């Protein structure tokens, strides 16, 4: 049975409809991310789950119990915000102890639990520091410990890494996932960063204008995007306007291709054919049967990857190749044949 269920959730602020027809089912222990651009409704959905905001319609169920009308304090949910939101006049351990005191636990139990939580986030040695004496990453660790201390049923993280430097962001991201697995706590993680969502989650909900465009495992989202929006938002994508010549036959990049996946369309339909930069290669690989020709405009050395920009019929197409021995950086102005497999072509 699903642990958390959102059934046809909608939210209006006055006349503006911010969330609509939002359905989601999360299993116990699952790690789910909400991914989408700023303003698409991620925080609003999270606040409805937490009980800070009441849905305009729809129901929220936790372990089979309808909690839609339940106040936030009775939902046993832990929250972490982008801004840390620690109590400035309390030390790290007092911050972590706060929820336990409110719950009326005895002193000994609180002390033991605070110790355990600070050790979980590797901050034992900074227990007596005040927030202003801690770095951003350390403050966010404390707020994670504070959220987890009362053993919530559900952990909600609203862009917890967005204010941090790149290196800290990655290490805290890995720690969040490790701790989540250790505790087995059901978690929702909000982010506008696709790499973050793909790397950390069991499943990703890609949100667009208050709706879930796709809910799937990271690889599925990347390899089989359900909509043009998902395909564009997640990763880099080369997009071609394509015309259906006949069912299963597509014309794009000044060439006609047999594409069985396009069999569901009618002659004359205008659709989109798209290829990821790594699906294209400057040499024919095993499985590559199709190609398009162009002219090399630019190459960029990105470390593990070399990216070439190729002009194809007036459109710039990105091709990524691994920086491995034998990789040849093409010369500007060179004519290039870009190979791909029909399996890698996204038809949207
Ligand atoms: P996200 O977290 O994805 O950036 P939000 O959920 O914060 O998006 O906001 C979604 C939309 O709802 C935005 O257009 C925002 O301006 C609007 N909104 C959020 N909260 C309120 C509110 N209390 N009153 C009116 N509009 C709001
Ligand atoms: Mg937000």
UniProtKB/TrEMBL annotation:
Gene3D superfamilies: 2.40.50.100, P-loop containing nucleotide triphosphate hydrolases (3.40.50.300). Residues 4-234 form the ABC transporter domain. One of its GO terms (molecular function) is transmembrane transporter activity. Keywords: ATP-binding, Nucleotide-binding, Transport. SUPFAM superfamilies: MOP-like, P-loop containing nucleoside triphosphate hydrolases. InterPro entries: AAA+_ATPase (IPR003593), ABC_SmlMolc_Importer (IPR050093), ABC_transporter-like_ATP-bd (IPR003439), ABC_transporter-like_CS (IPR017871), Mo/tungstate-bd_C_term_dom (IPR008995), P-loop_NTPase (IPR027417), Transp-assoc_OB_typ2 (IPR013611). It comes from the Bacteria. GO terms for cellular component: ATP-binding cassette (ABC) transporter complex. GO terms for biological process: quaternary ammonium group transport. Belongs to the ABC transporter superfamily. PANTHER family: SPERMIDINE/PUTRESCINE IMPORT ATP-BINDING PROTEIN POTA, SPERMIDINE_PUTRESCINE IMPORT ATP-BINDING PROTEIN POTA. This is Putative spermidine/putrescine transport system ATP-binding protein.
């Amino acid at each position: 049975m699903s642990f958390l269920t959102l059934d046809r959730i909608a939210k209006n602020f006055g006349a503006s409809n911010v969330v609509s027809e939002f359905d989601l089912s999360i299993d116990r222990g699952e790690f789910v991310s909400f991914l989408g651009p700023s303003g698409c409704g991620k925080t609003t959905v999270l606040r409805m789950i937490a009980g800070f905001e009441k849905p305009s319609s729809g129901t929220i169920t936790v372990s089979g119990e309808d909690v839609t009308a339940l106040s936030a304090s009775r939902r046993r949910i832990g929250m972490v915000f982008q801004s840390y939101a620690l109590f400035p006049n309390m030390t790290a351990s007092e911050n972590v102890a706060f929820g336990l005191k409110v719950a009326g636990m005895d002193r000994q139990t609180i002390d033991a639990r605070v110790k355990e939580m600070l050790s979980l986030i590797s901050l034992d040695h900074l227990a007596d520091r005040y927030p202003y004496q801690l770095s951003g990453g350390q403050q966010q660790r404390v707020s994670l410990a504070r959220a987890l201390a009362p053993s919530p049923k559900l952990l909600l993280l609203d862009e917890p890494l967005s204010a941090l430097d790149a290196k800290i962001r990655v290490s805290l991201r890995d720690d969040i996932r490790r701790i989540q697995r250790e505790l087995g706590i059901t978690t929702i993680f909000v982010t506008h960063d696709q790499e973050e969502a793909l790397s950390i989650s069991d499943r990703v909900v890609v949100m667009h204008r208050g709706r879930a465009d796709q809910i799937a495992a990271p690889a599925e989202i990347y390899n089989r995007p359900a909509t043009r929006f998902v395909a564009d938002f997640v990763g880099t994508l080369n997009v071609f306007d394509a015309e259906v010549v006949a069912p299963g036959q597509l014309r794009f990049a000044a060439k006609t291709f047999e594409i069985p996946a396009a069999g569901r369309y009618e002659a004359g339909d205008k659709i989109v054919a798209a290829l990821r930069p790594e699906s294209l290669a400057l040499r024919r690989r095993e499985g590559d049967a199709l190609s398009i020709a162009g002219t090399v405009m630019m190459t960029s050395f990105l470390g593990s990857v070399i990216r070439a920009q190729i002009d194809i019929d007036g459109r710039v197409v990105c091709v990524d190749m691994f920086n491995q021995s034998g990789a040849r950086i093409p010369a500007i102005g060179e004519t290039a044949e870009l190979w791909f497999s029909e399996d890698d072509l996204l038809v949207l």
